[in-house]
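Weekly structure sync, notes
Attendees: PL, DS, HV (note-taker this week)

Item 1: DOMON domain-containing protein
DS walked through the input record. Source organism listed as Podospora fimiseda. Sequence as pasted into the shared doc:
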Amino acid sequence: MRLINILPLLPLSALGAPTDSDADQLDKRQVYGVTSKYCSTASGGLCYLQYFVSQNSPTYRIAIPSDATQNSAYDVVLQVIAPNALGWAGFAWGGSMINNPLTVVWPNGQSGQATASSRWANSRTLPTVYTGATLKTLSSSRNGTHWSVEVACTGCSKWNNRGLNLNGPSTFSWAFSTNQVQNPGNSGSSFAVHTSSGVFSQPLDYGKNTKTVFTNYINKKP
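Item 1 (cont.): predicted structure, written out as tokens:
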């Protein structure tokens, strides 16, 4: 794990709905707590499965390559856009806090920077650092209302004898806290229990991208 570089991501609107530099934005008709497809020209045409929890909660976006196959390991991209009032946000790739890779992100106290941490929990206790998944930091930003983090994960699509479902809905869970982490600059920092959490299930079709678009996007980042 390493600190996220200060790189431009997506400008964030003051109203809480994130937008990209070409004015792509959340559909104003969108109901909170539902999934949708989000494509960004600022990201080279990359498309995401998007879950917009609520105005005061994070937005989660997932992108995968279209050549991914069931029960195989492949890189995935996770983007998290969170209100400044939140101290950390987490995402569980297997739909539960326990026995699957967790990606936890938080602002690290430096302007425009954030920390990303790969975690694992065997019980409902503080998740420990997980070496079975590695995170490549792609970008981060912060403005007056939100902070945003994007990572590419190797090891989040398949773990033990489980993995993401490419033949139907995959189940994910999310959590966040209004409390700051203990040591924001350290990816191994402890943090308080979440103040809110939830689960959603959706096929990954919205987040599929051609191999060229997906590979070019994650490889152009340092």
